[in-house]
Amino acid sequence: MTQKPTAEAIKAREGGASGSAGAGPGTGNPKRAGNPVAEYRALPGIADEMVDADGKVRPVWQNLVSAIGRMDAAELANRFARADRYLRDAGVFYRAYGTKENSERSWPLSHIPVLIAEREWEELSRGLIQRADLLERIAADIYGPNTLVNEGFLPPALVAGNAEFLRPMVGVQPADGNFLHFVSFEIGRGPDGNWWVLADRTEAPSGAGFALENRVATTRAFSDIYAETHVHRLARFFVAFRDALQMRKRSPDDRIAVLTPGLANETYFEHAYIARYLGFMLLEGEDLTVVDGRVMVRTVAGLKPIGILWRRLDSSFADPLELNQRSHIGTPGLLAALRAGTVSIVNALGSGILETRALLAFMPTICHHLLGEDLLLPSIATWWCGQKPEREQVARHIEKMVIGPAYSTRPFFDDNGLSVLGSSMRENAKLSIRDWLENDGQKLVGQEVVTLSTTPAWVDGKLTPRPMSLRVYLARTRNGWQVMPGGFARISSGADAAAIAMQAGGSAADVWIVSDRPVERTTLLTSDETFIRTMPGSLPSRAADNLFWLGRYIERSEGALRILRAWHGRFAENANSEMPLLKNVSEYLKVLDIDSAQPVPDSLVANIDSALYSASNIRDRFSADGWLALNDLSKTVRKFRATVEAGDDATHAMTILLRKLAGFAGLVHENMYRFTGWRFLSIGRYLERGMHMTRLLGHMSGRDAPDGALDMLLEIGDSVMTHRRRYNVNTAPLTVTDLLALDPLNPRSILYQLNEIRAEVEQLPNAYQNGQMSPFYREAVRLHSGLAVMTPEGMTGEVYDHLEKEMERFSDILAQTYLS
Q: Which of 41, 388, 401, 731 could potentially form a cystine with 422 if both were Cys, beta carbons 3.0 to 4.6 Å apart?
């Protein structure tokens, strides 16, 4: 029996699905309201991807179009909902800048894929490979002999005056001999049906991970159609690139890492996704240090060498010593390591100069000079206004031009407000165009207005033509450049190409490269039955820090919820917050910055948000289910803060939140691999729970505790039933102390937490040094032993105070030992 593949299996082979996820072709409801395909009309005078000039469906689209035509609106809506649900469950997002509210936005999938015939794609690929080779040669010249400038093929101003040109990189040869390893190109089809290059992406190309997620989501919607269509898979591309990077390592001990600017970056999700997908470390600049000319990563087991960095931050921020001194996301000394040839960077620092918009004007001539051939894939027509003939050309044809910054590295439709349509200028502005170009020509570029081809998008319940561009990726492999058979399409939110960018409301569609014959189904999984079990990679200190505090914030939230539930339960019985027990607990909560007057205190929301933030910093190490559970918890607690009232309502709300917390804890406990990261998460939880119970017992188990305090302690400690079974007496200070402080079998007791901490610490790196306990391990043993010899009679308020201070000290020693 055929089994439907899981999402992970689909990801492993980049989105290939077998079997049907819904009604297949020919099973549509005969009562559908209109045929969405038959109603589709291409825009006059504009090339369309799906239909030709005569309005006929192109052959490559016919299978998909025929299937969609047999579906009614309800079935299509269900299919699209499956795709959207997958993206939500996977936590796919991008970050929108310039917004006051939460800037994380759901990934805007355009559900209808773009289909391109294999033969056409092969022709495009030849042009793109030629262009990648050309850009490599240009980079090598700019940072090497500089013959292009010396011989007049490139204006000096476009190099010397360019912010993307990094003088400290001149003469620095990449360790592996190549400046470029992973590039992308923004391409578009014009009215004549031919493709143009709109922009080159060489600095830190983004979106490859989103292309993978687009594929998985789209196959959720059209799994049956995808299975019977010969669509080239994406995995082979990533396998080839991963293997090429592995080959470039100079030592088996070298590590490969993705270098991210951090959580605030708009494509951080993709950085984490790619790192997890390819099995690389995800690092930030602060994780790295340069020692004796070598780049090292700070891990809990000490400094470990990095051999290859796939950077996703701009070059100028990479090294604050020699580049942008205001950078807080770089690594001091990185350029020194590059000069020493001890690390390879993908792509080389300074490669952003190749993205300069004005460079497009010189590409045909440079190509003929360096490669001895014409460009196979032309750029959008471009004129740099730093030369008189070009200025006059732009001025004469201003109506057909877009005027924009010469040094811009974005396509004209990505920098609204910077580029100006000549046709939109007022008459008096057009009269002064010559003066403008004369005065600021070196800073300006003119580009021919592009009318992008359209592709079908699902808008308001029907297929509607929308302008689109393609983002295509190339990776350097052992066999040269390889083109990803797909990438993703950027779809405009309206009829104007200016709305194609994500930040402007655009969406993204999967791209299917369709063959006439069955295609190879490469996966990231090996079919070799022999294997070597390797231990998980080194744990960076920053990741350990986030795991440790994730554990603490989760446990801190649970402790607060249990106290608040007990408080509101008793308040519901008499509605008197001034009764001694409730007043006593309110005073205790105030010390913890928890306001009992708020049914759902702000500090509780802050703790859960802090847990979510810690988890977001380790997305490459965190499961999708765990992420969903935390997000759900955060949304629920915010909803309750706005709606819940004190008493029974709050008690019920706290119970719901506790269950959700327990669900998250269960996911982590059952699914997380028992290695170093797990230990730091667990130590954080055990330590916070131990401190929580220590403070509670010190405050509520003394002789001056109000009536009902002991029963409340047992309820907060979730030990009411255990106390009844174990002690044949009513609640008493000694029995409560014995159960909640000293019972090694009670998972809520202090001693249990210290016992578990000792066991986890023993397994940490360097717990033993030269056959002896490390100072940190010795501290864990001392902390555990000090409590293990105590009796209930000896547990006084002073003992609890001292124990709490010792736990805080233990946390500090842990940070100094492993997290600094």
A: 401
